[in-house]
Design goal:
Helix content: 55-70%
Oligomer: single chain
Strand content: under 5%
GO biological process, one term: mRNA splicing, via spliceosome
Number of strands: 0
Family: Belongs to the SYF2 family.
Pfam families: SYF2
Protein name: Pre-mRNA-splicing factor SYF2
Order of helices and strands: HHHHHHHHHH
Keywords: mRNA processing, mRNA splicing, Nucleus, Spliceosome
Shape: flat
Distance between the termini: 97 Å
């Protein structure tokens, strides 16, 4: 307030030689009111920004993520209502907006979430995980399995030492062929596995660590044919 009053007195009592001498007293007061209004507006906006910043600091760290999640849920609910009003399937219409790469990433994420790899714990857990993986690859007909189980009963469907050979249950030839093909694929896949190389204690030591050993092997594969004679001359001491 003191600064504005000093500014007003300066404007009103400036010498006639300045550019403000042509302004009347009413114009000067009008200019002063405009400056005062701008100052009050700036103070108001500054106070509002300070209050908003304090509110943002009081919010949890993941508030932005939650806010985006809530906005997406609101848009999804509105999209679902629009689809229902038009008689369309909500999930089908949503999938039409998903690209091929995004769909592949979502499918991979879903499969990993359904069967997470927690690492090796016991042989029993590893066997169970492998069994579940093989069952998903074979894709058995669980509906036919349940119907046959209900028709034959527990005792005949799961034969014991007393009922073995009595049950008339026969496997589907197509299911047997599918299992046979899967076993053959497993055998072919195991052939491609890289076995662990045995360490040769009699081999020459021309390395200082494991990384240098692998690097020397790569050099030997690439240039060993050209440097064999030079290496022999160096070992015999006949190199020029």
């Amino acid at each position: 307030t003191l600064k504005l009053k000093y500014f007003a007195d300066t404007i009103m009592f400036q010498p006639a030689s300045t550019s403000t001498s042509a302004m009347s007293k009413e114009d000067k007061l009008k200019k002063l009111r405009e400056l005062t209004a701008k100052r009050q507006d700036a103070c108001k906006q500054n106070h509002q920004e300070v209050v908003a910043e304090d509110k943002r600091r009081a919010l949890p760290t993941n508030w932005e993520h939650k806010r985006r999640r809530l906005e997406w849920e609101e848009k999804d609910d509105q999209f679902k209502q629009d689809c229902e009003s038009k008689g369309h399937d909500h999930r089908r219409m949503r999938l039409l907006e998903v690209g091929a790469e995004t769909a592949d990433k979502l499918d991979t994420r879903r499969r990993r979430k359904a069967n997470p790899d927690t690492g090796f714990a016991t042989f029993e857990a590893a066997s169970s995980r492998k069994y579940q993986t093989l069952c998903r690859q074979l894709k058995p007909d669980m509906r036919a399995y349940a119907e046959e189980k209900a028709r034959m009963g527990e005792d005949r469907f799961y034969p014991t030492s007393s009922t073995l050979g009595v049950a008339d249950r026969k496997d589907d030839p197509q299911a047997v062929e599918r299992m046979s093909q899967d076993v053959k694929q497993q055998v072919e896949k195991r052939k491609k596995y890289s076995r662990r190389r045995a360490f040769d204690e009699d081999a020459d030591v021309d390395y200082i660590n494991d990384q240098n050993m692998r690097y020397n092997r790569k050099l030997e594969r690439a240039f060993g044919h050209y440097t064999a004679e030079i290496k022999q001359n160096l070992e015999r001491g006949t190199a020029i």
